[in-house]
Specification:
Shape: globular
Oligomer: single chain
CATH topology of the largest domain: Rossmann fold
Distance between the termini: 7 Å
Radius of gyration: 17 Å
Number of helices: 10
Bound molecules: 1,6-di-O-phosphono-beta-D-glucopyranose, magnesium ion
Number of strands: 6
Strand order of the largest sheet: 3-2-1-4-5-6
Largest sheet: 6 strands, parallel
């Protein structure tokens, strides 16, 4: 039997922080007179903070100095962190906890593979840090999704071959990263968006433990 490993993205898979990222970016966009809708926000999912700002500036056709960009990046993150202050386990998305618990009962290695530099405090605040055998986040990688670096490091830390890793992702870039890394990609969200994933579920309440069991075998 080949040892499997389960890698979870954070934002949009474990917690719905996308709405907080959106509110914080929207403030910057409003300040700069750039139209920034929820639809535009889809472009930022799974994308690093630095790249997210560039995308917003491109939307507004604004060229900015590095100094201004640094200032907005700090402002955005400070604002984003204020939304996390009151975060607790109630923000874990439906069904996630059941699957994490099942994987633990089955002694399956679990890692986090996120682009966020705020991943650890979020796992701490939601009380699920201890479920993770390895954490790879935006502080550990130099290449953003769809580059598979984040997931490859996670698989290595879990001592598993990429082919035996299973990745849960809500972003197109993340699904592509898993596929490029030759891992099993599981899209969490809309089929119309995540059609490149090997399996797609609307959310974790649609994943039953027998499906997870079939992946373990
Ligand atoms: P931060 P994930 C990503 O997390 C988010 O999807 C993306 O919207 C965000 O810009 C990125 O993290 C960086 O987050 O500003 O906290 O470092 O989905 O890869 O878990
Ligand atoms: Mg995500």
């Amino acid at each position: 039997m080949n040892k499997k490993a389960f890698i979870f993205d954070l934002d949009g898979v474990i917690v719905d922080t996308a709405k907080y990222h959106y509110l914080a970016w929207k403030k910057i966009a409003d300040q700069l007179g750039i139209e920034f809708t929820l639809e535009h926000n889809e472009l930022l999912k799974g994308v690093s903070r630095v790249r997210s700002l560039d995308i917003i500036l491109e939307l507004g056709k604004i060229e900015a100095s590095q100094e201004d960009k640094d200032k907005w990046l700090i402002q955005k993150n400070e604002d984003y962190l204020t939304y996390l202050v009151d975060m607790d386990e109630s923000e874990i998305l439906p069904g996630v906890f059941t699957i994490l618990k099942f994987l633990k009962e089955k002694n399956q290695p679990i890692a986090l593979g996120s682009a966020s530099k705020n991943a650890r405090p979020i796992l701490e605040k939601t009380g699920i840090l201890s479920y993770f055998d390895a954490i790879v986040d935006g502080n550990d990688v130099s290449n953003a999704k769809p580059d598979p670096e984040v997931f490859l490091i996670a698989a290595k830390l879990l001592d598993t071959k990429p082919e035996n890793a299973i990745v849960f992702e809500d972003s197109v870039a993340g699904v592509q990263a898993a596929n490029i890394g030759k891992m099993t990609s599981i899209g969490i969200g809309e089929e119309s968006v995540l059609h490149e994933a090997k399996y797609i579920f609307k959310d974790f309440t649609h994943i039953d433990t027998s499906f997870i069991e079939s992946l373990i075998k």
